[in-house]
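G., the chain you wanted modeled:
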Amino acid sequence: MVIKIHGHAVAPLVRLVAEVCQEKEVPYELVNVEVYKGEHKTPAFREFQPFGQVPYMDDDGFILYESRAICRYIAKKYAPQGTPNLVPNDPKAEALFEQAVSIEASSFYPFALGIATEKIIKKHRGLEPNEARVSELLNHLSAKLDVYEVILGKQAYLAGDSITLADLFHLPYGTIVFEELGYDMLGDRPNVARWWKKITSRPSWVAVKVKA
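Predicted structure as tokens:
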């Protein structure tokens, strides 16, 4: 069966799920949701995603929402194929993976999302960004990336020497901050820059970078 991803093709977390499908060589179908028309807030959509956010997944009748949960499900269900060990099985490797996932969730995503919200989402809503808030978020993110520089000076990826979902989770909003918005936060962090180049050059991300 083909996994159905319900969401908008350019939505960051829709592209994340599509990227993991690519990594695991899992065919998927994008079911377009007109988010700019508010389709994701309708009762019909909320029946499957009660928070009214994209994406949600339908795998032969199994409904799942929250992009990171979807990615974990795909990585584990299709573990034997595609990129191996995106979610490690060894207890120690899994613990390091969970540590890395927590790093992304607490030390990267909130700040990158906040910057994207101020600079992009507000624009779509006809609002002006709060530049003081953007500056504050950039300062916080910069401090966190200093720690990334130390970690990635000792290993190739956040959870060790093999790529995992923890690395891939950075792709959508990292691309927005570093590339689309052009904030130069990698030039003086060679270890982060090397890591970023490795994960963004993966064919799986290149295939969905613009749209899922």
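The longest strand covers residues 3-7.

Shout if anything looks off.
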